[in-house]
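This part of the workshop introduces the protein records we will be handling. Each record describes a single protein and holds just a pair of labelled lines. Instead of coordinates, the fold is spelled out as a row of discrete tokens. To make this concrete, we reproduce a full record directly below:
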Amino acid sequence: MAILAMVAISYSSSAQHVDRTSFKAGVHVGVPLGDISDFSNFELGLDLGYHWSVSEMVDVGLATGFMNAFGNTSTEDIGPVAVEVDFPDIQYIPAAAAFRLYPTYDFKLGADVGYAIGINEGNDGGFYVRPMIGYNINGNTELNVSYTTISDNYDYSMIALGLLFLF
């Protein structure tokens, strides 16, 4: 009876496991905050990742992509002279570990943590953290909200809305 009970418990726990192992690709749009908001009003990015299902409630994986904060053009008054200033785009490629927790099938909480490689001139890159909340629209499409911060020579932070597809 004890062996039969252990086999039944083992089978039922493995039968409940949902395998969410998948490649993920999507886009996000963001609003810069902090120091970066002085130079940009809009950010657009590409999200790529691969997640492995560890348990019914946990995924781990790798995340990368591309982020581009579009530089503003502004007019600065220097005495009686008005000078037009074009700020350059600020671009990063994140290389991060990903963690997701699924309290329900439809909702997920998680974060990407790693390093963001600065690819435009004068951009050193820095420590990258992106916590997020996601909602499964259907079996292979997710809508998410995230906050990104990069510790560079300035405060690069933004809030973004993203659409992600699972393959």
Q: What stands out?
A: The longest strand covers residues 40-53. The first helix runs from residue 2 to 15.
